[in-house]
Each structure stands twice: as structure tokens, then as C-alpha cells.
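Reminder to self: C-alpha cells first, then the designed residues, so the page reads top to bottom the way the pipeline ran.
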């Protein structure tokens, strides 16, 4: 990528996100191959895990079975801009949102007979039959029909005139562990499918695998996978690195706005946490926690400049990060990589999560929506 990243009006960005769509499509292929499933519900909720909803949807449009999001706003935005790819809404719908969702042709998830009846009634009044996926709670403990009650509830749903039961799914709270808990979830879900089949209730789509389960669980009862994080080349668990190779899609860049010498005894930043013990070069970047850099990472964090790694000089501020460049040469306008690769050195979302004591999901989903996203 060039040093000069410009927006349409020719103004240079101080900080920006670079997106590579080749690895995104390669990660998709890897997931399909690993799971031996062609149907993919690509989870692109939360602004495509912070990567940029429009940019990621544009790259995946027409290539996946569904786009999966959690908010009606994101669902309708996708429907409007990428009508060729069906949109699946995981989230709950409040009564006032229902008609927009139905008119928008969004694939809905239902977790109760009451909600199913509400959707059915509204659909009938529109002269329609709405396809839905039923969510089963096998242990996640949030939404979903509790698996032990699900049989009779689904039989009642099947009789609703305005509803078409298109899919059924469940979700794992500990997908990365192939332990007894997960086994029980799979078994109970399977038994439910069998008992429904005996009553001639069958589903076009049956799904339960997020990224971790896609990599660690093989079961013939499903026919679609539901990956999120690995699509973006990020691992939900470091133990899964050996299972398949995924390549990061996103890099985070910033441009040095100030270079200065800091002398022994002088401090940089809030709390005076950084006090120079020898004369050093400090660079300031226009990227702070308001852009999504985690405040908690500052003690362990590093960034890349000219392919070398440097620690932060003090705490992360709202709009700025200071970097201790030691004896290195740098100038205003130089590009610094906060996440991504430079000359073989790499910082991953997993690294930043580790420094901040959090999970990589949080690192990427918190990247400010206002950062420019540049597809390279
Ligand atoms: C219901 C559901 N399925 C799939 C996913 C994708 O999970 P992952 O990003 O771990 O692949 C999520 C993510 O939160 C989810 O809520």
C-alpha cells in the first residue's frame, strides 16, 4: 500500500483500516473445504466484526448462502445494497420492528411460540408465508427454545399458517472444547431432529457450527456452517491454529503526526507513566481508544515502523498513542502499523487482545465505524 492513502476529496487520512479481500475469500474456501459443506451463513454482524459491513458484504455477495447479522438496521442495509444475498437476522425483533423485517424479506430467527405466532399473524395479513429458522437452546442459555420443550412447541409452530419452517439451529457456549457438554448439546439437538422427522417436520437448513466448531466437530446432521471470526483470518482460540490456516484480512495503519526527542526525566502522556531514562525519539500517532485501540493494552503493546517493533510510550489517550522509537529515525507522515504486517514482522488481533487481557472479537468489533476502510 502506498504511503499516501487519500479519500475522494484528496485529503490524507491520519489513521485508516486496510482490507484485503483475497484472504477473505481464501478463508471462506478453507472453511468450506474443512467442513465439507458448501452452504455458509457468513457472520458479518457488528459491522462485519469491525472490518466494515459494506466492504466485506461487497466481497462476499453472491458467494455465501446467507449474511448473518444481529440488528435489523444492518439487515436492511444489506438487503438494500446487496439484494442477491439473503440476510439472516439472529437478533430479537421487537413488535415495532416486525413489519419492516417482513417487508424487507429478512430471514428471521424465532425462539418462542409467541413470537412465531406474531410473525405468522402479520405475514398472513400481508398475504404471505414467512420462512424462519428456529433457534434451540441446548446450553448457551440465552435465546432459543429449551431443547427439552422444543418438540411440542415446534409441532405447534408447524401448524401456523403464515410461517414456513425453513431452518433449525443451535449454538455452543464452549465450541472450542470437544467435551461432554458439547457432546450432549449435539446429541440432544440430533434427537430433536429425529423426533421431528418422524412427524414429517424437516428443515432445509440445519446448523450449529461457529468457527471453532467448524474446525473441531464433524457431524452429518448439519448442512450449513456459520463462521465469523475465522473468515476474517482470526483464531477464536490459539489451540486451533494447527487445525487450519487462516489469513488476516484487516490491517490498522496510522501516520506519524509528530516526532520529538524526549530527554531523561521528561514524561509522555497521562499519569506520567512513561519517564525517559535516556534521550529517546518519541512519535505521536492520531489513533487512540476512541478509534478502538484498547486502553488496557498500553503496558505490553507494540507497533511496527519500517518493519521493526517498538513499545508505546505511556498510556493510550482518547485520540493519540505515543511510540518510543529509541534511536530510530522517523519523520512526520511516516506510516506505522498497529495491526498487520511489515517486512515479515506481524501484529495480530490475537496479540493485541492478549496485551489488553481480552478476546480478539472485542479488538476488531470495537474499531471505530468512522475509520476509513480502504480495500487494497
Ligand atoms: C449464533 C452465532 N453463530 C455463529 C457465530 C460466529 O461465531 P465465530 O465468530 O466464533 O465463528 C456467532 C458469533 O457470535 C453467533 O452468535
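Designed residues (376 positions):
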Amino acid at each position: 500500500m502506498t504511503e499516501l492513502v487519500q479519500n475522494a476529496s484528496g485529503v490524507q487520512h491520519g489513521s485508516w483500516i486496510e482490507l484485503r479481500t483475497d484472504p477473505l475469500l481464501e478463508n471462506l474456501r478453507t472453511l468450506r473445504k474443512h467442513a465439507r459443506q458448501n452452504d455458509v451463513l457468513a457472520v458479518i454482524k457488528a459491522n462485519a466484526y469491525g472490518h466494515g459491513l459494506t466492504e466485506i458484504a461487497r466481497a462476499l455477495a453472491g458467494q455465501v448462502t446467507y449474511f448473518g447479522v444481529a440488528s435489523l438496521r444492518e439487515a436492511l442495509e444489506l438487503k438494500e445494497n446487496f439484494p442477491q444475498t439473503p440476510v439472516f437476522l439472529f437478533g430479537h425483533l421487537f413488535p415495532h420492528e416486525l413489519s419492516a423485517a417482513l417487508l424487507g424479506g429478512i430471514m428471521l430467527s424465532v425462539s418462542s411460540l409467541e413470537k412465531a405466532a406474531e410473525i405468522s399473524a402479520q405475514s398472513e395479513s400481508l398475504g404471505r408465508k414467512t420462512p424462519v429458522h428456529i433457534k434451540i437452546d441446548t446450553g448457551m442459555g440465552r435465546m432459543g427454545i429449551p431443547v427439552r420443550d422444543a418438540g411440542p412447541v415446534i409441532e405447534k409452530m408447524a401448524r401456523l399458517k403464515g410461517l414456513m419452517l425453513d431452518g433449525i439451529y443451535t449454538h455452543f457456549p464452549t465450541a472450542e472444547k470437544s467435551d461432554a457438554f458439547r457432546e450432549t448439546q449435539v446429541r440432544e439437538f440430533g434427537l430433536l431432529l429425529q423426533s421431528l422427522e418422524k412427524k414429517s417436520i424437516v428443515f432445509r437448513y440445519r446448523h450449529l457450527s461457529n468457527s471453532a466448531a467448524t474446525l473441531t466437530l464433524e457431524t452429518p446432521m448439519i448442512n450449513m456452517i456459520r463462521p465469523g471470526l475465522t473468515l476474517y483470518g482470526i483464531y477464536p482460540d490459539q489451540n486451533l491454529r494447527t487445525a487450519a490456516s487462516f489469513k488476516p484480512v484487516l490491517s490498522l495503519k496510522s501516520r506519524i503526526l509528530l516526532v520529538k526527542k524526549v530527554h531523561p526525566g521528561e514524561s509522555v502522556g497521562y499519569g506520567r507513566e512513561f519517564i525517559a531514562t535516556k534521550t529517546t525519539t518519541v512519535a505521536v500517532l492520531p489513533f487512540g481508544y476512541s478509534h478502538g485501540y484498547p486502553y488496557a493494552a498500553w503496558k505490553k503493546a507494540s507497533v511496527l515502523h519500517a518493519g521493526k517493533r517498538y513499545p508505546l510510550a505511556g498510556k493510550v489517550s482518547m485520540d493519540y498513542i505515543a511510540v518510543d522509537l529509541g534511536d530510530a529515525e522517523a519523520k512526520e507522515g511516516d506510516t506505522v502499523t498497529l495491526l498487520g504486517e511489515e517486512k515479515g514482522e506481524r501484529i495480530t488481533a490475537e496479540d493485541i487482545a492478549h496485551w489488553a487481557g481480552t478476546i480478539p472479537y472485542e479488538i476488531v468489533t470495537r474499531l471505530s465505524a468512522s475509520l476509513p476502510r480502504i480495500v487494497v
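Residues 43, 90, 171, 210-212, 226-229, 236 surround pyridoxal-5'-phosphate (CB under 6 Å).
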